Amino acid sequence: MSPRATVHLLRHGEVHNPDRIVYGCLPNFHLSETGQAMAELAARELERRAADGANITYLAASPLTRTQETAAPISEKLGLPIASDGRVIEAGNHFEGLHVNRSELLRNPRHWPKLVNPLRPSWGEPYREQVDRMSEAIKSAAAEAVDRGGDGAEAVIVSHQLPIWMARSSIEGRPLPHDPRSRQCNLASLTSLHFDDISAGTRPRIEYCEPAAELYSGVIQLPGS
User: Which GO CC annotations does the UniProt entry carry (predicted)?
Assistant: First the structure.
């Protein structure tokens, strides 16, 4: 029988972004003070699970600043180095660097070609490409965790809302085009994928939790995060 594994997809904490910029893959967008507290709460939750017997052996994160900073307290508490994985980076977005103002974007003709096909979507990386790269990263993380810890080992991947939601939507068989407001992937949330057999190609069981829910009031939630 092939080994079991769990891969936790952790979204980063709140970003310091008072100008409400679509930051996407832009560098040097740091966690806010609240975001740092969110990362700490997520790390404590994983530390608690490890104390209860979870064998967490591998930690990876998107190379972007906000995900690396979210991974840092996990690395400290669990004694794991952070592996940087470009496959779990935020999706590219034509509107990176712009202020979030839907009516302004619609009035500017230079943006219109990027708005013609929301099913792909035409403004950024295709949904299917996000699924493919996330799937490969998840498989790699599961295998790495098992190589280090044996049957039932666990991995953590710190990523971004849209790639995490695309991975989950694909696993659950939902259409990839969606209303962003429908995503169940809040700041510093954990989407846990439980694989009964990492080599069988079967769908994992999914659990979702929000270790930082107490800090959600008043936080800034923008696309491209």
Answer: cytoplasm
